[in-house]
Amino acid sequence: MSLAQIQSFVGYLRQHKIFEQADIIRIVKQMVQLDRRIGLLAVSRGYMKPEQVNVILHGLLQRIDLKFGEAAVQMEFMTAAQVDELLKLQANDLFLFAQAAIIQKAITPEKMSEILKEYLKTAPQPDDPATGSKEGTMSGRKMREVLKNVQSVAALPGPAQKVLAMLQDPEVDIDKVAKLISAEPTLVATILKVVNSAFYGLRAKVNTISQAMVVLGLKKIRQIILTAGVMQKFQDIPVSQALKIWDHSITAGQWAKEIGLKLTFKDTEEMFISGLVHNVGELIILQYFPSEYRQIQANLTAGKSQVEAERQVLGGTHADLAGFVFETWQLSADTVQSAMYHHHPVVQLAEIKTLSKHAVILNLAVALADIECEDSFEIMARAEILYDAYKPLLGNIDVDFGPVFTRVESGVKELKRIFA
Ligand SMILES: [Fe+2]
User: Fold this and answer.
1) Distance from Cα 310 to the centre of ligand 1, integer Å
2) Which of 199, 259, 384, 390 is at a distance of 20 to 30 A from 180, taking alpha carbons?
3) Gap from CA of 274 to ligand 1 centroid (Å)
4) Domain ranges of the chain
């Protein structure tokens, strides 16, 4: 099972406003069941009746050496060809997702097949570096285990999710948003702390959410709520580990934003968000898969790279995980892509035709945030060397890293103070 493939399909569905977040979670849960139980699939295809499935399951209790399909053929409930077909379908993520959506009555079979046809015209090929998925069956099986936890993994705390969903609508009623935020003390506290920080240098103190919304603007409010929501969701992670990930993320976000500014990109706040959340997949592994996390650590100690170590244990990487989860959080397509490709080597980025410049900048920003060095001059020198490799992908524009680095440094300092 490839998480990247499901992510790509979910992204397509979201883009065309076909399902809500709650539908996606429901469908993925159903999909995991279908994937594990061939009987359910047989019933949904009309090959067997539910009572026949029960007869077989009962029989299997006595014959643990027998497989469901073999038993169904022996009892003449299904033909061998039908079992073969079901096994093939079971290995097809898109089919499973579609079937699960139909069983959940989220869509009609006719509409689903229409959508699938359209999607397949534009879908990335399985061996395209863009899908990043070359997992074997063994690792695929592990990824199913990950998806079983979709309910807890793929949801932000309720209030944050609600506000973010409201802010998706460009014609949202601002008073309603302010009211919703005002009912959440943690969100109120964070927003007021940000708006009253030295960063904004306001003379008079802002005391209400409505005022803060005027001062900060909706984009900044969205950014703060997302950050607060993510922090709240992962509050069980040991502070030292969480801090390390946040430090790196804030730094990557600042680099992305400042480079974006230099390259005259419009939405540099979105670049900051992409940096801030790009490693959420790591937080997910830490919080929801502690034993897998330990295995990954053992792999790292044995000399494997992070990507290799995670693929071996989970069947996918923290980047794949984040891409999938961000689709359900309805983050922007650029932020989803940035998370998915932040560990791809720069030489591979050029091969991915659908990759946005936003994602390229984020990949560079992550590499810059990875520089472990105290000496400012060395950081700038290394930044310039790194940038040379990305320059052709970003319009061959020259960047003077001196002022960029100074702004990154001061921005990071201020952000750490705000979110401490
Ligand atoms: Fe990462």
Assistant:
1) 11
2) 199
3) 12
4) 3-125, 158-419
Token match 């560990």: residue? 343
- CA dihedral of residues 404, 406, 410, 413 (deg, nearest 10): 100
Degrees to nearest 5, angle at CA 329 with 156 and 212 = 70
Token pair for 15: 């883009």
Q: Which two tokens stand for residue 117?
A: 């046809």
Alpha-carbon gap, residue 79 to 72, rounded angstroms: 8
| Nearest in space to 270 (alpha carbons), one of 367, 214, 338, 195 | 338
Question: Distance from the CA of 363 to the center of ligand 1, in angstroms?
Answer: 10
Angle between helices 333-340 and 3-15 (to 10 degrees): 170
Q: Using one digit for the tens of pLDDT, what is the confidence trace for 332-350?
A: 889 999 999 999 999 999 8
Q: Tokens at residue 258, please?
A: 């400042």
Cα 371 to ligand 1 centre (Å): 14
pLDDT category at 184 given cuts 50, 70, 90 is: confident
Nearest one of 294, 281, 22, 29 to 144, comparing CA atoms? 29
In percent, how much of the chain has pLDDT > 70? Answer: 93
Give 245 Cα–ligand 1 centroid separation in angstroms.
Answer: 9
User: How far, in Å, CA of 1 to CA of 335, rounded?
Assistant: 23
Instruction: Compute the distance from residue 158 Cα to the ligand 1 centre, in Å.
Output: 26
pLDDT of residue 349: 92
Sign (positive or negative) of CA dihedral 282, 288, 294, 295:
negative
- Predicted pLDDT of residue 117: 85
- Which of 17-31, 70-84, 215-229, 357-371 has the highest average model confidence (pLDDT)? 357-371
